[in-house]
Fold these 2 entries.
Entry 1:
Amino acid sequence: LSNGKLVSQKVNKNGTRTDTWRMDLPHSTYLFMMAVGDFKITKDKYKDKEVNYYLEPKYAPYAKQIFGKTPEMIKFYSNTLGVDYPWNKYSQIVVRDYVSGAMENTTATLHGEQVQKTDRELLDGNQESTIAHELFHQWFGDYVTAESWSNITMNESFATFGEIIWSGHDGGKDAEEQTRYDKLESYLRTTKNGESPILARFYYDNKEDVFDNVSYPKGSLILYELKNQMGDAAFYASLKKYLTDNAFKNGETHQLRLAMEAVTGKDWSPYFNQWYYNGGHPILNVTYNYAGGKETINIKQVQDSSVQTFLLPLKVDIYAGGKKIRKNILIKDRDQTFTFDVSGKPVLVDLDADKILVGEVEDNKVLEDYAYQYEHAPCYKNRIEALKFAAKAKTAASQMLLLEGLKDKSASLRLISVQGLDLADGNVKLKALPILVQLAKGDKDTGVRGVAIAKLAATGDTQYKNLMLDGIKERSYNVIAASVTGLAKLSPKDGTSALAGLDADTKKHISGSIAGLYAANGSDEHQQFFQSIMATGNRGEVFGAIGQYFQYLKNNTNPTVTENGLKDIEQVIERLKLQQYLSKQLGAAFQTAADGKTKQASAITGAMKANLEKQAELFKNAANTLNGQ
């Protein structure tokens, strides 16, 4: 596979074959690609253009399940941008050991192996957002390419924006809002006090520095906020002008601004100066007060003093007197107060009602506010804020809100609600358990099923054992893994017996859960499972299993198993040079295990006493070795 069109294939006398690909349209050199290997091609099309999927033969039967939405994506992006897909074909290929997640080579996107999944793996999630991201690059990145790495926002912010709008087209408004929320959280996790680098960075130490959460998620949200301010029609007309004016050439942020000004007749320099040529984001601390028919909102910008003061046109929804009233406000100072006439004390004031702010809001609300917000405010962000507050509050009233969340239309919010439940509260437990059983058995999202199974297992009630034994027979690896982990708590012997019915491929996918089950069981015959990982596993595999191996050794009562296991751990630490990561932690754990075995031995007599004393000695010696004594 290469860029452009395959124009000839010639079989040579020496057994080789010469393929000739022609790329008639100009594109940047870094977008050239060539891939050669044993791939099976699945053919699709958009209009009269080939859309092909190159996969390893094992995964070819699932090509349409992996990539099958691509023609609809091309149609959606073409119609939305007003610029039809500009190239003569579009192929996608999956390769191994690629240095990055994916690469938007012109007409021939390359994906890393994580995109390649069987139908069973696809039950637990897909790479659709990556597929959408790389496709949008065919316009923003390939058709018009960033003029320099300083302008990488013209590639990556747009491709990430493409993920957002596709999620809305394919999954609806709630899905789009969830994608935006996730992008914002991804960006905010890398910041402190509102500080972050400039989006259009003309100074950097290394070009790799610009491939970050500012250029990707933050930049995409800045575009979405701009769309909200400008209106969809003007925004997409501006993108069309930018693309057509700069087709098969380079583009930069100033050209985007000029295209927008030409379409709208408005000066967008203040917006670009604030969001593209200055860094950081606003943090708004908001307080509310009602008195004498007036609602007062005080907003302080509390980001670090080194971060600019932002100009923020926002919408506010006021819920009062059985009605919702929308007001427009313009925040421009560090400390600002807005006052509105209302028909009665509001039950909720929803700042940034469209949830487009690229920043943080410290809202100073109480549970009563969030409960009303969850039921009446329309956005995904309204609901997730309410449920997260309830999960942290851990009060009887907040638990009632989480019970409502178990029925939310969004799988991610059902999952948060399950995780936040406190089943130590008898009233909550009584109401939650029947719903949790329903979710565990039949939720359409396998992630929700998995956390519901885990929640039931945490009760320690063996009445749920059969539910988990049934879960092991499911096709979803998430559900199987959760069921195995649950049985490790409720009935390790039954769980171990059930594993016998699983094929090798399934066992490979749920090896972490199997490790937990074997650790809980502690039977001699399962040591080989851990020894194999210690002997041949890479760092990731060893880190994932070594804690479970330690638990296995604690739960086993055979000194020979203990001695061999401690040698395995000592050897893998040396093999992978893990001393700085594990020696101190495991040294303390081994000493704790030695003390525990000594205590157990003191309470009994006979052969088992001798075994436990020997194990205590082995753990103590291993601890001393790791601690350098």
Entry 2:
Amino acid sequence: MKKGNSCNRITDRCTCPELQCGISCEHGFQHSRYGCEICRCRSEPMKPTCDISECPEGMVCSRLTNRCDCKNIDLICRKWCSNGYKRDRLGCELCECRPPRKFVTRSQ
């Protein structure tokens, strides 16, 4: 059995560890941000398919989580940013580097 998630950066697909959970859920289990089932029940049934027209501009419809998610910036951006990437208003990473943090020192 695998521990954690195993992701392929080329296809952005993950294989999930086998769920070992002692509960039964009428609408199935909730999913982690990686698309893996977690031991929590869904409050309502999952939509049968994800519709890209429901997603805000700049987001993609994830088949793993069946919801609108940020595009995987590692697949579309060739920049390496030592301070990480800037984020848009939706919280998705942009292909722009964040500036270095400024540290303020207190004078005594």
